[in-house]
Amino acid sequence: MVRPRPAVEALPAYRPGRNPADLAREIGVERAVKLASNEVAFPPLPAVVEALAAAAAETNRYPDNGAVALTGALARRYGVDPAQVATGCGAVMLLQQLAQAYNDPGTSIAFAWRSFEMYPLLAQVAGARAVQVPLVPGSPGGAADTHDLEALAAAVDDTTRLVLVCNPNNPTGTAVRRAALERFLDAVPEGTLVVLDEAYREFVTDPDVPDGLELMRGRPNVCVLRTFSKAWGLAGLRVGYLVAEDPAVADAVRRTHVPFSVSSVAQAAAVAALASEDEVRRRVGEVTTERDRLTAALRGRGFEVADSQANFVWLPVGDRTADLAAALESRAVITRPFAGEGIRVTVGTPEEDDVFLTALDEVAAAAGVA
Ligand SMILES: Cc1ncc(COP(=O)(O)O)c(C=O)c1O
Question: How far away, in angstroms, is 306 Cα from ligand 1 center?
Fold first, then answer.
């Protein structure tokens, strides 16, 4: 038998999330609510549906491998040169491209933990060392943990090619503030690329949480990752982008691009979504208002919930996590448990969140979290 590389054999097997239709059938209810993947609940934007229909008529052709129209639209929107932009098949693919571009075996990737699940796997596949720096307790009143940027900067050494800062952090929803992030960027040596993963940037309402694209200016070792999967409602199409202060970074990422991996329909949809930004902002406003209502409702039930700057909230229920998530599923609500740590709950529609809160009220005592 031909064996895969040990690093690949050691990767966890893919475990699909629960499908709401399957769960509903299994427990005999009409509909299950999925609050597990940080999608937005709105249907695709009307302009996106139109663009998809038009693009569908051309799917016998390969996509534009350089995504010129989308890259140009992003460059105009964010006031950068197209040479500073790279698009990818989701931000996850861009993370993989970054590791391919910068990490030889024996080098390292540093990041906070707990953070986005993909980060340790990224290092493993690249044959790089994952340097994980524990989160620290958040600000007073904020139960969820947050980045320890001083410790993260101290963990960077001359093997560290990438340092990933997920802001706001998935799954805790906490965000680092301007002064702390500027100090961090000043401290990281030039030979290490700082990747500000801003997948949830559009949901930030705290004015002191900096826009990475502004902080990046004048810092050639900083780049920003964003995605169309969350606020822009294109999770099913897979489009993300990277903006780098130094065009050489975008160039390195483009060199590791899997040819044609951003499909023609995805490119057309992303261009249409960008042109509908007003409607996207309005929808995001509804999500953040609902996030605040959900947070208050959970605190009212005695849960320690930190202010989230993303489109999800974090319930740090520790060793009750698995029981609570299973109990919620038995009430047709799918959340994202992190065993032994907590549950991440995506902000849904007010109706979906009420289904979740009702289910929580029903199961909390039995699951030992009331
Ligand atoms: C922090 C973070 N970064 C990146 C991504 C990847 O987004 P996508 O590959 O859908 O663009 C996610 C998705 O969940 C995320 O939470």
Answer: 21
Q: Ligand 1 centroid vs 92 CA: distance in angstroms?
A: 6
Show the beta-strand stretches assigned E in 216-324.
222-227, 240-244, 312-315
Ligand 1 site, residue 97, Cβ cutoff 6 A: no
Distance 367 CA to ligand 1 centre (A): 30
Query: Which of 116, 167, 223, 312 to probe ligand 1 with, by most ligand atoms within 8 A of CB?
Result: 116
69: its two tokens? 């129209």
pLDDT in tens, the chain (370 residues): 999 999 999 998 887 778 999 999 999 999 999 999 999 999 999 999 999 999 999 999 999 999 999 999 999 999 999 999 999 999 999 999 999 999 999 999 999 999 999 999 999 999 999 999 999 987 544 556 899 999 999 999 999 999 999 999 999 999 999 999 999 999 999 999 999 999 999 999 999 999 999 999 999 999 999 999 999 999 999 999 999 999 999 999 999 999 999 999 999 999 999 999 999 999 999 999 999 999 999 999 999 998 999 999 999 999 999 999 999 999 999 999 999 999 999 999 999 999 999 999 999 887 777 7
- CB of 166 closer than 6 angstroms to any ligand 1 atom: yes
d(CA 279, CA 48): 12
From its phi and psi, is residue 127 left (phi > 0), alpha (psi between -120 and 50) or beta?
A: left
Give CA–CA dist 64/68, Å, rounded.
7
Q: Judge if the beta carbon of residue 38 lies within 6 A of ligand 1.
A: yes
Please say whether the beta carbons of 196 and 224 come within 8 A: yes
Q: What's the CA-to-centroid distance between 363 and ligand 1, angstroms? A: 30
Q: Tell me how far the alpha carbon of residue 1 lies from the centroid of ligand 1, in angstroms.
A: 35
Q: Can you give the pTM of this predicted structure?
A: 0.96
